[in-house]
Amino acid sequence: MRTMITIAISALAVICTAARAQEIDWKKVDAALGRTAAVTGDVHRYGFPRSDLHVMLDGVTVKPGLALGGWAAFKPMQGGAMVMGDLVLLDSEINPVMTKMIQNGFEITAVHNHILRAAPATFYMHIKGHGDPLKLAMGLRAALSASATPFATTVGAAPSSSAIDLDTAQLDQIMRVKGKASGGIYQFGVPRRERISEHGMPLVPPGPMGVATGINFQPTGNGKAAITGDFVLTENEVNPVIQALRSNGIEVTALHSHMLGEQPRLFFMHFWANDDAARLAKGLRAALDKMAVAEK
Fold it and tell me: Which of 110, 157, 183, 227 has the greatest number of C-beta atoms within 10 Å?
C-alpha cells in the first residue's frame, strides 16, 4: 500500500512539473538570454562559453568546452523555476557580476578555481535562483553583462564542432561509458546511483543540473589529451578518488562544494593532466571505480 502511494505521489509530481513546464514561455526566456537552450527532460540549459578568452595552461590552449563553459539550467518547480549555474569569470569580473546577481535575486553558492596555473587565471561562480523564469533570465543577462561574456550567439545558432583526433572507441571501452563529441572536446557524463536533491527538489536529470561527474578530453596531438572536469563525491569517496588519480599521474586541482543545501552532502573534485589519452582514461576509470556511479 505504501509503495502504491509513493508511486502515485511521484506520478503526480511529474504531472505537475510537466504542467508548469508547459506554462513557461521558453521562447521569451531564450530571447532574454540570446540563445536557444539544450533541453533534456524538463530542464532548459543555456551555455555561456568564454570564447573571448585565450587561456593557456601548461602549453595547452584551453578550448571553451574543456574548462571555460559557463552554464545555467532552468528547471520548472513550484513558484516558477529553479536556476542553477556555473559562470566562468576573470578575477576582475567577480565582484561586479556578484553585485548584479544579488540585486537580481540570485544566491551565490560558491566562488573558486577549477584549474591551476592558467593564464589568465579563471574563476567559477556557482549560482542559484528561484522565481519567475523570465525575470531570472533577464537578471542573469544583466549580471553577465558586467563581464565580457560573449552574447553574440543568436537564438537558434548551431554549436560549433570539430573532429576529435583521438581513438574515441578505445576511450569508451576503457571508461565503460559512451562519450560524445562537442566543440572539439570528447565528453563523458557519469551520474551517481542515488538521487540528489537541493532543498528537497530532485536535481534530475543530473547531467544538465550539474550533479553528474563530468570528464573532458581535449586532443593535444600524437594520441595525447588534456583532461579536466569534476568528480561528484560523497565524503567517504574523496580520499580513495584522490589516491586513484594521483597514482595514475593525474593532478587534483580543487576540492570544494558547489551547492549549499544538497542531499546527500557532496564534494566536487577537479583534476588536470596532459598525457597519453588511453593511459589517462585508465586512471579516470580507476577513480570512478571508487564511487557509487550509475552506469548504462
Answer: 227
